[in-house]
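Private note to self, pasted from the team thread so I don't lose it. C-alpha cells:
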C-alpha cells in the first residue's frame, strides 16, 4: 500500500512538474490563458498568440509570434484589406450584355453575349432584375445562342474535389469571371399543407437539373435528416439529377440543403433560360464561350459596392467571394485577364508598400481554403494595426463579425465580457482554429488580438480561443507581464 501511494504521489508530482515546466517555458502567455489551451488538449508548441494595444509599438504579451501557421479563413483579412485600399470601398463589378446581331421588333437575329468581370455576388434577385432590364430595353426573343465571355479571368482547371473530396459543397466552387448565384442549388424541404407529403422545391429551377424522386413524409424525430432522405446525385458539367428515395421526418419542419451542381457555363445557361422566360422572353438556344464585340453594351448589371461584398466575405467567411475579389486584385497591377499569379503578385507588392512584405504571409488563393497559406501572429497584428490607421478603417472594421451578435461569432462569447465588444475574423479547417481582430476593453483601451492553433485538437480549442478574447476584454488594461 505504501509503495502504491508513493508511486501515485511521484506520478502526481511528475505531472505537476511537467505542467509547470510547460507553462514556464511559455511564460509569454498569462497563466490562465496558457492553462485554457492545455486543458483543451493543445500543446502550447502548436499555438501562436499576440495581444497588443492598437496604439502601442510592442505587444502586451506574445507566444511564438513569428511561427508560420496555417490561418484558415483569417487569411481573408489580407484579401479584404488589400481590396479596400487597392480597389476602393466604392468599387463595383459590371456584367454586360451585348447584341450579336440586329434587334428587329423585339427579336434578336443573332446571339446574346454576356461578359463577366468577376462579380463575386450575383444573386437570383439581381439576375431577375437583369433579365427584366433586357426585356424593358426591347429584347423579347433570341434566335441565336447564349455566348459567354469569361475572358476577364484566365484560370487553370479547377477540381472541386481537390481540397476535401466534397465537390458539391458550395464553398468548393471555383472562381469564374461570370459567376452567378455561387453556382449553387437550394433544395427546400417542408411538410405540405395537408400534412401527408413533402413539399420539395428547387431554387433556381434549372432545366438542366432533374428532380427525379421526393422523400416520403414520416413521423418521428428529426435527427440526421440528410441521412434519412437517402439522397443521391449525379452531377455532370452539362446535366445533373437529384433523387431523395428515403424518408423525411415531419418534426423537421422546413429545412434546406445547398449544393453546387453543373459546370459554370451550363449553370449560367440554365439561369438565363429560366429567368428570361420568367420575364416574358423567348429563348431556346445553346450556350458556348466566345468574346464580346468592341461596342457599347446593350444592358449592364452593376454590383453592390465592394464595402458590401467584404462584409459578406468576413462576417460569413464566404470562400467563393473571397477568391473572386482576390483575382480582381490582379487587375490593379496589370490589364486583364486576371490570373492567380497576377493576384498573388499584386498582393505581395501591396504588402511591400505597406512594409509587411517580411511579415510571414504566404498567399495562395486569398480565401484561407488552403493547406499552403501561411501567416504569423505578428504579421497579422501588424496588418490589423495598419488597417486601424488606414482611411478604409471603418469599412474594414465593420466587416468583421461581432462577438455574440452576428456572422461566424453570432453564437460565441455570449456570456462573456467580450460580447458586443470584439470584432474578429474567425478561421477553421481540420486541424486549424484561429481568430484575429480587435477587442474593446471596458475602459478606453482597444486591443489587437491574434491567436492561431495548428493541431489535431484544434476544433476543441475554440473555448480556449474565446477565453483569450474574454480575458483580454477583462484584464489586458491592468495586466503586468512577468518581470515588470
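Design output:
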Amino acid at each position: 500500500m505504501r509503495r502504491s501511494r508513493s508511486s501515485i504521489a511521484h506520478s502526481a508530482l511528475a505531472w505537476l512538474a511537467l505542467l509547470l515546466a510547460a507553462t514556464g517555458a511559455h511564460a509569454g502567455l498569462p497563466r490562465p490563458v496558457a492553462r485554457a489551451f492545455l486543458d483543451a488538449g493543445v500543446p502550447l508548441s502548436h499555438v501562436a498568440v499576440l495581444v497588443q494595444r492598437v496604439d502601442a509599438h510592442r505587444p502586451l504579451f506574445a507566444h511564438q509570434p513569428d511561427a508560420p501557421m496555417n490561418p484558415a479563413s483569417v487569411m481573408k483579412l489580407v484579401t479584404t484589406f488589400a481590396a479596400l485600399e487597392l480597389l476602393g470601398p466604392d468599387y463595383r463589378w459590371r456584367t454586360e450584355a451585348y447584341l450579336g446581331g440586329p434587334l428587329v421588333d423585339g427579336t434578336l437575329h443573332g446571339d446574346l453575349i454576356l461578359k463577366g468581370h468577376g462579380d463575386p455576388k450575383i444573386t437570383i434577385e439581381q439576375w431577375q432584375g437583369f433579365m427584366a432590364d433586357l426585356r424593358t430595353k426591347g429584347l423579347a426573343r433570341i434566335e441565336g445562342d447564349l455566348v459567354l465571355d469569361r475572358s476577364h479571368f484566365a484560370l487553370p482547371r479547377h477540381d472541386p474535389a481537390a481540397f476535401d473530396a466534397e465537390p458539391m459543397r458550395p464553398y468548393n466552387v471555383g472562381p469564374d469571371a461570370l459567376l452567378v448565384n455561387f453556382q449553387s442549388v437550394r433544395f427546400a424541404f417542408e411538410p405540405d399543407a395537408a400534412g401527408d407529403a413533402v413539399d420539395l422545391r428547387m431554387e433556381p429551377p434549372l432545366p438542366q437539373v432533374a428532380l427525379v424522386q421526393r422523400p416520403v413524409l414520416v413521423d418521428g424525430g428529426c435527427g440526421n435528416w440528410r441521412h434519412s432522405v437517402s439522397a443521391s446525385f449525379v452531377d455532370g458539367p452539362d446535366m445533373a439529377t437529384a433523387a431523395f428515395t428515403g424518408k423525411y421526418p415531419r418534426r423537421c419542419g422546413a429545412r434546406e440543403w445547398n449544393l453546387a451542381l453543373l459546370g459554370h457555363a451550363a449553370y449560367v445557361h440554365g439561369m438565363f433560360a429560366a429567368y428570361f422566360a420568367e420575364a416574358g422572353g423567348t429563348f431556346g438556344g445553346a450556350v458556348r464561350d466566345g468574346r464580346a464585340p468592341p461596342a457599347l453594351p446593350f444592358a449592364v448589371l452593376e454590383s453592390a459596392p465592394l464595402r458590401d461584398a467584404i462584409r459578406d466575405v468576413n462576417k460569413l467567411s464566404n470562400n467563393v467571394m473571397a477568391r473572386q475579389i482576390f483575382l480582381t486584385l490582379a487587375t490593379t497591377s496589370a490589364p486583364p485577364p486576371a490570373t492567380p499569379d497576377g493576384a498573388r503578385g499584386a498582393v505581395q507588392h501591396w504588402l511591400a508598400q505597406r512594409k509587411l512584405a517580411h511579415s510571414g504571409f504566404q498567399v495562395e488563393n486569398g480565401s484561407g481554403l488552403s493547406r499552403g497559406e501561411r501567416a504569423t501572429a505578428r504579421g497579422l497584428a501588424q496588418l490589423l494595426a495598419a488597417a486601424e490607421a488606414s482611411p478604409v478603417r471603418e469599412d474594414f472594421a465593420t466587416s468583421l463579425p461581432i462577438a455574440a451578435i452576428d456572422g461566424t461569432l453570432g453564437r460565441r462569447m455570449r456570456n462573456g465580457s467580450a460580447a458586443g465588444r470584439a470584432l474578429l475574423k474567425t478561421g477553421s479547417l481540420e486541424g486549424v482554429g484561429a481568430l484575429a481582430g480587435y477587442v474593446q476593453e471596458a475602459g478606453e483601451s482597444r486591443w489587437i488580438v491574434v491567436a492561431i492553433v495548428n493541431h489535431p485538437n484544434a476544433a476543441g480549442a475554440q473555448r480556449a480561443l474565446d477565453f483569450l478574447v474574454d480575458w483580454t476584454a477583462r484584464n489586458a488594461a491592468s495586466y503586468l507581464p512577468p518581470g515588470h
